[in-house]
Design brief:
- The protein has 24 helices and 6 strands.
- By secondary structure, the chain is mainly alpha-helical.
- It folds into 2 domains: 304 residues, Na+/H+ antiporter like fold (Up-down Bundle); 133 residues, NAD(P)-binding Rossmann-like Domain (Rossmann fold).
- The chain has a 6-stranded parallel sheet, sandwiched between helices.
- Helix 7 packs antiparallel against helix 8 and helix 10 packs across helix 11.
- The longest helix has 36 residues.
- It starts with a helix and ends with a helix.
């Protein structure tokens, strides 16, 4: 079978499975994994070098780590230091230690492999959990904040875990002291170059690209930054993911952050889909059927034990009901476990049969998560009706609400923002013109660079919490695209649009927009009013 036929078959199977799973509210990640399993079962891939496919697929994780790095601004981490560095640290360390001990002492697996298994099982699914929590609004709730904090620390922990896997693989051939020293020196060098040199160069580079006013060049420049940072880290013995993560942190504090997130999401999701298809290629359906009861039993045991451990850890810091919901949300085995297993396999740290069982367990746990997290509050309320107390401190993901979003920061947008500030009304403004954004930053206004028609940009500006949106943009097509995106996210929000002609009003009324300020009519009325006051 030629490669084009394989691609067509893969796309057809993937779309078909995900359309069915979508109706069941199961994550597309599960569909991608099952796609790989179906392909390897029915299609002969002996003529295809899967190594190259896996190399390309790895960049799904690279772009995921980059977008995670974008969230790691110092302000973000500081405001969630307890959830991230205390609760998150405790969860990863304790859960890893328990699963490592079970693998080593009960199942008789050697210590190095047990460490790999223990740390991988300690991780939860950032991609699925945060997506579902965002969709159902639970990310704004106290247990959503706890889940987010633990997931953030788990994402940080992925880098040292991957380094640990490589270290364990090389520990027999190299002295521990020399390997640690070499890793430390290389790590310091990579961090210094990327943070010190990279931050300055990246800022200048992106500024020059923005001046070109080309969206294609902007996207290409971001991809170049991600890939070059990954390559640089890899040249010094680190994972591609580490370089991408640092690159994301470099840009996290810049004004380009939101637009970059919006532009990279399609690339990241497509490559992540390819990564999970390659995971499915490792899934042997016949092996799963032959060991069905063992796999299901292990899955149930891991989910139950992990949920109990997270509940006990959370109960130290919070209330029973909140701890219970957090434990249910994070009980699964996350997608980064597949990356850890892949590195362990390439370094001969894990047996083939053990790998098959672990991958099967992870897939079933992800299916469980897709269903359980969506209804975690209903499930918890059924057994535990007492209300939890409210958090004393604000939740980071909802730190601004009842605010006004201003789309466009030209002269009119600047005047609107000035009036909002006078009235002490919270606001956020967005503009795609770098010059306007620079003016806003100099004035101390909350102005961000980005395309206001992008749903990712609007969501990052907490559109669901906003009181109203004011659109102060002249381009009719752009205004319609912005209104469509706003209505898709929040159909009932109050939208006020500056228009110049009746045809634009007629067009936007079809989208449910009801409030307009006709620039020409308003100016005409004002001029006539002024004229009537003159002495004739």
């Amino acid at each position: 079978m030629d490669i084009l036929t394989i691609i067509v078959v893969t796309l057809a199977i993937s779309l078909g499975l995900n359309l069915v799973l979508r109706k069941l509210n199961v994550s597309p990640i599960v569909g991608y994994i099952l796609t790989g399993a179906v392909i390897i079962f029915f299609v002969d891939l002996t003529t295809v070098d899967k190594h190259y496919i896996e190399e390309v697929a790895e960049f799904g994780i690279v772009f995921l780590m980059f977008t995670i790095g974008l969230e790691f601004s110092l302000h973000h981490l500081k405001s969630m230091k307890k959830e991230v560095f205390v609760i998150g640290f405790a969860q990863v360390v304790i859960t890893s230690a328990v699963f490592t001990s079970i693998a080593h002492y009960i199942f008789g697996i050697n210590l190095n492999t047990s460490l790999v298994i223990g740390t991988a099982l300690a991780l939860s699914s950032t991609a699925i959990v945060l997506k579902i929590l965002n969709e159902n609004g639970d990310i704004h709730r106290p247990y959503g904040r706890n889940s987010l904090g633990i997931l953030l620390f788990q994402d940080i922990a992925v880098i040292p875990i991957l380094l640990m896997v490589v270290f364990l693989a090389n520990s027999e051939n190299t002295s521990v002291s020399s390997l640690l020293f070499q890793t430390l020196v290389s790590g310091i060098f990579v961090l210094v170059v990327l943070f010190v040199v990279g931050k300055y160069a990246t800022s200048k580079f992106l500024s020059a690209v923005i001046d070109s006013k080309s969206e294609e060049l902007f996207i290409a420049s971001i991809i170049l930054i991600v890939l070059s940072s990954s390559l640089f880290a890899h040249m010094f013995g680190f994972s591609y993911s580490l370089g991408a993560f640092i690159a994301g942190m470099l840009i996290a504090e810049t004004k380009y952050k939101h637009q970059i997130e919006a532009d990279l999401v399609p690339f990241r999701d497509l490559l992540l889909g390819l990564f999970f298809i390659t995971v499915g290629l490792q899934l042997n359906l016949q092996f799963v059927l032959d060991n069905f009861f063992i796999i299901v039993g292990l899955t149930a045991g891991i989910l139950l034990l992990k949920a109990i451990l997270i509940f006990v850890i959370m109960r130290v810091f919070t209330f029973t009901k909140r701890a219970f919901k957090t434990a249910l949300a994070l009980a699964q085995v996350g997608e980064f476990a597949f990356a850890i297993f892949a590195v362990a396999k390439s370094n001969s740290l894990i047996d083939g049969d053990v790998l098959q069982i672990l991958i099967s367990v992870a897939v079933i746990s992800l299916i469980f998560t897709s269903l359980a997290v969506r209804y975690v509050r209903e499930f918890t309320n059924f057994f535990y009706k007492q209300r939890s107390e409210i958090l004393d401190e604000p939740i980071i993901t909802s730190e601004i609400k009842n605010h006004v979003i201003v789309c466009g920061y030209s002269l009119l947008g600047q005047k609107i923002v000035k009036q909002l500030r006078k009235k002490d009304i919270p606001y956020m403004a967005v503009d795609q013109d770098q010059t306007h954004v620079d003016i806003g930053i100099q004035r101390g206004d909350a102005v961000f660079f980005g395309n206001a028609a992008s749903k990712s940009i609007l969501e990052s500006m907490f559109l669901k919490n906003a009181m109203a949106v004011i659109i102060a943009i002249d381009n009719d097509d752009k205004v319609r695209l912005i209104c469509e995106s706003i209505k898709d996210i929040n159909p009932h929000i109050h939208i006020i649009v500056k228009v110049t002609h009746q045809a634009q009003i007629d067009d936007l009324e079809g989208l449910g927009v009801r409030d307009f300020v006709n620039q020409n009519e308003s100016v005409a009325k004002l001029l006539v009013s002024k004229a009537m006051k003159c002495d004739l």
